[in-house]
Amino acid sequence: MSPGRRRAGLRGASLRVRVMAAAALLVALTSLVAAVLGTTLLRSYLLSRSDSQLLDFSKVASRIVDRQQLQPAGSSRSQALPTQFLVEVVGAGGQVQVAGGPLGSASGLRLSAAQLGQTGTPFTAAGGSWRVLVEPQSGGAHLVIAYSLGDLNSTVTRLELADALAGGAAVVLLAGIGLPLVRASLAPLGRIEATAAAIAGGDLSRRIDHPAGNTEVGRLAEALDVMLASIEAAYLARADGEARALRSEKRMRRFTADASHELRTPLTSVRGLAEYGLQQGDAASREELLRLMGLIAGESGRMSRLVDDLLLLARFDAGRPLDRRPVDLASLAAEAVQRARIVAPGRPVTLEAAEPVIVDGDEGRLTQVIDNLIGNAIKHTPPGSPVTVTVAGRAGEAELTVADRGPGMTAEQASRVFERFYRTDGARTRASGGAGLGLAIATALAAAHGGEITVDTAPGHGAAFCLRLPQAGTWQETATGSQGQLT
Fold first, then answer.
1. DSSP type of residue 483
2. Mean pLDDT over all residues of the chain?
3. Cβ neighbours around 182 below 10 Å, total
4. CATH fold for the domain made of 322-478
5. What DSSP line would sit under 156-198, residue for residue?
6. Rounded mean pLDDT of 384-404?
7. Cα–Cα distance, 121 to 72 (Å, whole number)
8. Minimal CA–CA distance to 186: which of 206, 207, 215?
9. Rounded CA gap, 422 and 381, in Å?
């Protein structure tokens, strides 16, 4: 296998395999370095000891050789020399006389002329089998003293074998103990991988089940959990924004369709009445023309009121500011009750207000809200049904309630009663008047003042619409940042 393929295979292996391979390589390299260093030091020490023995023995051997006549190997006189040393005298002509040694002349030690010239310093000869010291003699002869390295080489070989066995045992021990430890240490990474796969599959609520700590994996898990929470929040915010945009688009389409429907009816009436008047021409009487003009004026007025309501809603959708000042909500309610009694003289409309309730608001817009609520109660209840307006202040909040004893509404109707163009009559008739914008306008005006309108109703138990507004001095705290904020 080429080196490139081996590197590619290692990169494609799991982290567990790569960690174990790196650890095994480090152990093997450490064992090899230790073995080489140990054998080198041992060989150096043994050679140093052999050289010391050679140098010491060379002095003795020189005196012995000078006193005795050299004999061939096997002679009784040659045994006076220690048997662990090989002693030879090489004459000037190259002839060898053996003075003694473990093998005598059969040792096979033959030195070249260059080696014979290395006098005074021990060196290794005969393929590393002998440690040799050459001393010069008279007449051009040389005294050769050699020490066999068989025991030394055997000792070093045994040490090398022991080091190799120890290195192999270390690698096996590392695999037996290190693999479970690595597997246990990297188990959190497996959970992180499973969590990432689940999140990629769409489960953004998944988190890494690992306690945070001072370990690298613990800190990684904690950081990833924070990142995943941020991603989930951003995704949910984006999804919520898209849902709101979709709902807003649907409401806009419905609003446009309803506005077109509401405007088309009076326009059709005006057009029909105008065409009828033109068809009559000079044959139409003055009374008939006045009646037609009155009908056209009525339809035009209704269309004008509808356009004004739509324009008002558009202004508040655009964030049009209010003309704010301290206003007594009880006084506004009293004036609205008086107007309602004039418009509906046979309707009992009463006011309950024990004391002034001051709010920061636009007097004209708040009057419009109260008129819409009272007018809605009068339009949708039987003649003679009482309407009660209550104004009170509670815990920094002003409350104005318009309650009637009419037929009430179902839960589904109550949930949609504040929608634009919504009317409780399913046939969308105009017998009760209005285009279904009164409560929508009142809700928008209340929101612009930092308040809200709620309804409490049930079939057969009437309806109570409650307007809640912050009292004077609390608006800045309750509505900071909204379009109706005080300046």
1. T
2. 76
3. 17
4. Heat Shock Protein 90 (3.30.565)
5. HHHHHHHHHHHHHHHHHHHHHHHHHHHHHHHHHHHHHHHHHHH
6. 91
7. 26
8. 215
9. 17
